């Protein structure tokens, strides 16, 4: 029972961290499209990008494998959700 509670709590924390990095990186990408960023901002942003990728892969393997009851075929959660969405639209 304790293992299930710890797994659920860890999943929520992992999801929240991944969401934080996603929002941060989306904002940096938006600002890059609007104006040119200084090299120091880009240098500080790239480590966040790689941390976000690692968190996204961990979320895909640890959480979405349980949610979807399948082993991951893709590296990122977004790719998996796109595949699930395509399967759903083909069924309808």
What is the secondary structure topology, with strand pairs?
Elements: H1 2-34, H2 39-62, H3 64-68, H4 77-91
Helix pairs in contact: 1-2
Structure description:
The protein is mainly alpha-helical. The chain has one domain. Helices cover 84% and strands 0% of the residues. The chain contains 4 helices and no strands. It has helices spanning 2-34, 39-62, 64-68, 77-91. The longest helix has 33 residues, at 2-34. The model has no long low-confidence stretch (mean pLDDT 89).
Provide key terms for this protein.
single chain, mainly alpha
Total discrete domains = 1
Taken as a percent bin, the fraction of beta residues is: under 5%
Strand count? 0
Please give the oligomerization state of what you see. single chain
Would you list the SSEs in sequence order as H and E? HHHH
What would you call the shape?
Answer: flat
Secondary-structure-derived class: mainly alpha
Beginning-to-end CA distance, first to last residue: 38 Å
Which residues sit in consecutive blocks of at least 5 with pLDDT less than 50?
none
Number of helices: 4
Helix share bin: over 70%
* Rg over CA atoms: 16 Å
Biggest pleated sheet: none
Summed over residues and divided by their number, the pLDDT gives a mean of 89
Task: Give me a quick take on this structure.
With 92 residues, this protein is mainly alpha-helical. The chain has helices at residues 2-34, 39-62, 64-68, 77-91. Helix 1 runs antiparallel to helix 2 (39-62).
């Amino acid at each position: 029972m304790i293992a299930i509670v710890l797994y659920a709590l860890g999943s929520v924390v992992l999801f929240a961290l991944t969401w934080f990095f996603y929002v941060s990186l989306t904002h940096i990408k938006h600002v890059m499209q609007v104006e040119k960023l200084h090299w120091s901002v880009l240098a500080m942003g790239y480590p966040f990008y790689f941390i976000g990728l690692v968190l996204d892969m961990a979320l895909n393997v640890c959480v979405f494998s349980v949610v979807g009851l399948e082993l991951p075929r893709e590296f990122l959660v977004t790719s998996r959700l796109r595949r699930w969405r395509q399967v759903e639209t083909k069924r309808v």
